[in-house]
Amino acid sequence: MKKKSLFVCAGLCAAMVLASCGTSKESAYKKAYEKAKAQEQVVEQQPVAQAPVVAPVVEQPVNQAPVVDNVDNVSVRSENVTLIDGAGLQNFSVVVGSFSVKANAQGLQGTLKAAGYPAQIVLNSGNNMYRVVATTHADKASAVQSRNQFRAGNYPDAWLLFKK
Fold first, then answer.
1. Which residues of 50-83 are buried (b: 16+ CB within 10 A; e: fewer)?
2. Range 141-146 contact pairs with CB under 8 angstroms and sequence separation of 24 or more
3. Looking at residue 115, what is its pLDDT?
4. What's the CA gap between 73 and 92, in Å, rounded?
5. Predicted model pTM
């Protein structure tokens, strides 16, 4: 009987301790809430600075020469590639994608063809990479111009390939 009453008393004590923890948590949350509310009211009471008055900008035409890329300074990768799908490569090509999986290269080729580009796929067998060529050119200047157009659009990582 003594053991039974001892367990009952211990259980009641534990229940009271657990019940009292909830009140302290509630008071801690209440204090934090009141502190945040007070800070919010202080911020609302501060005066709002007015934006400075800015005079309108008058634009005047500037005589500038058009910016032309120095074609000689544009980097070109030279790779030994084999044509997989397409009409054929000229000396300089604009590459917009490189893939280790042929199906991924074919997907990008289809996207480019749907957009009206004569896209081709070449294989660099040295590193087993399929290159998706968007356009191909006989001279470096036109290839640089085409690459810049692709970079300005959806292909910011487009680069030039020189076929060995």
1. eeeeeeeeeeeeeeeeeeeeeeeebebeebebee
2. 141/71, 142/92, 143/92, 143/93, 143/94, 144/69, 144/71, 144/74, 145/69, 146/94
3. 93
4. 15
5. 0.58
